[in-house]
């Protein structure tokens, strides 16, 4: 299949690994920003085949994972109202809020529907003018344009029973926050290719220069990731810190001007809280004043909901690359995809889910030393069992 098999060619992969091995002379810590890249890395064992000392740190680029707990609680409250049809991509339904998730609210009688596009939700609003239809608008720069376009269409068509519960986040401020952290170990970034397909490259040179950190825009297939790593370690070894585009088949310097124009019309930049991490200035979008009437938070008066993260879940440390998922005491035992404590175990892009799904249960590491891994393997049965759990998901935000 084009763009799958040709970007998984083992001979080309060998050559890239050889080039990386020949380049590296000392340890380096690279962060892959996107959860989709994390899944590809873990699934193909790329991290295990790199030279000793080259570490891949899993970044916060999973939209489901970083959606704040209080936003999930707002979704639960809105969805439970009898006059509401609450629409979402499938992977948000099992994300735990303070007490329950959207699946539970649905089982209690709420009209919660999985859709494949925000435009499906707008279509439902047109079919049910007597009901309020809310779409859960979650995600990075990748999912924001279609959500913006849907609100634009709702306003243009005069569909007033549609609204958006917005939790959009932006990558560059997150990179800035990671680099400003006193515990930061990241020395280079594999930036998220699909984000740059929309936004282009213009936001990154200033970050690379100010933090003296290489940023290589990278795709998602195995060869894409190896090429991103190869270019990154070459820069690190040469003492350089530039922005490079290793995903030119999808990313142009200026991204998608049409998508960016739609974003700047419908949204405005705002501070945003990232689940497990905290508030990052200017790291999100909210509806602009022109479209504020379509903001579900205001329409349903849920702006005041405030909640605390469960203490046991260490997803904030996972999302900042401070621990690996199997270093969390609950991993694979009290926390599994079927009974998740945190969003990183639910999402199709979550690092905890990747470790559970792709064989990292029985691996040596801190969790093994405590005997957790053996229990986890016994609990899950196998990666196939985990995959079956994951097959219950229907649609995804990322
Ligand atoms: S394994 Fe579960 S409890 Fe631990 S950090 Fe991941 S999601 Fe949270």
Automatic annotation (TrEMBL):
Q: Which Gene3D superfamilies match?
A: 6.10.20.100, HypD, alpha/beta domain 2
Listed A to Z, the keywords are:
Iron, Metal-binding
- The record's region (Disordered) falls at 367-398
Where does the record place Basic and acidic residues bias?
389-398
Give the compositionally biased regions (Low complexity).
367-387
**What family is it from?**
Belongs to the HypD family.
PANTHER family referenced in this protein's UniProt entry, alphabetically: HYDROGENASE MATURATION FACTOR HYPD (PTHR30149:SF0), HYDROGENASE PROTEIN ASSEMBLY PROTEIN HYPD (PTHR30149)
Question: What is the protein's name according to its record?
Answer: Hydrogenase formation protein HypD
Annotated organism of origin:
Streptomyces hebeiensis
């Amino acid at each position: 299949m084009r763009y799958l098999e040709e970007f998984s060619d083992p001979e080309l992969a060998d050559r890239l690994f050889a080039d990386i091995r020949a380049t590296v002379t000392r340890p380096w810590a690279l962060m892959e920003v996107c959860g989709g890249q994390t899944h590809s890395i873990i699934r193909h064992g790329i991290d295990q085949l790199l030279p000793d000392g080259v570490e891949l740190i899993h970044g916060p680029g999973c939209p489901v994972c970083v959606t704040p707990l209080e936003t999930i609680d707002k979704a639960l409250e809105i969805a439970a109202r009898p006059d509401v049809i609450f629409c979402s991509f499938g992977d948000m339904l099992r994300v735990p809020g303070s007490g329950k998730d959207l699946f539970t609210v649905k089982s209690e009688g709420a009209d919660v529907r999985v859709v494949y596009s925000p435009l499906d939700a707008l279509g439902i609003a047109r079919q049910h003018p007597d009901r309020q239809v809310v779409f859960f608008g979650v995600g990075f720069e990748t999912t924001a344009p279609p959500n913006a376009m849907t609100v634009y269409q709702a306003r243009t068509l005069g569909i007033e029973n549609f609204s958006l519960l917005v939790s959009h986040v932006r990558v560059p401020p997150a990179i800035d926050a990671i680099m400003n952290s006193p515990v930061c170990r990241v020395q280079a970034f594999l930036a998220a290719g699909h984000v740059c397909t929309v936004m282009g490259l213009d936001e990154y040179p200033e970050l690379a220069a100010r933090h003296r950190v290489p940023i290589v825009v990278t795709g998602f297939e195995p060869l894409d990731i190896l090429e991103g790593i190869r270019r990154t370690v070459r820069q690190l070894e040469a003492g350089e810190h530039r922005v490079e585009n290793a995903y030119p088949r999808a990313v142009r310097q200026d991204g998608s001007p049409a998508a960016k124009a739609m974003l700047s019309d419908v949204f405005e930049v705002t501070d945003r809280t990232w689940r497990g991490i905290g508030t990052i200035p200017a790291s999100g979008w909210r509806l602009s004043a022109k479209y504020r009437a379509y903001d579900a938070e205001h329409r349903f008066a849920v702006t005041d909901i405030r909640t605390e993260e469960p203490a046991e879940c260490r997803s904030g440390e996972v999302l900042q690359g401070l621990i690996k998922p199997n270093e969390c005491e609950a991993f694979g035992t009290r926390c599994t995809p079927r009974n998740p404590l945190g969003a990183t175990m639910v999402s199709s892009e979550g690092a905890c889910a990747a470790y559970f799904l792709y064989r990292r249960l029985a691996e040596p590491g801190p969790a093994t030393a405590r005997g957790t891994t053996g229990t986890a393997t016994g609990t899950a049965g196998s990666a196939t069992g985990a995959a079956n759990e994951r097959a219950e998901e229907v649609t995804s935000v990322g």
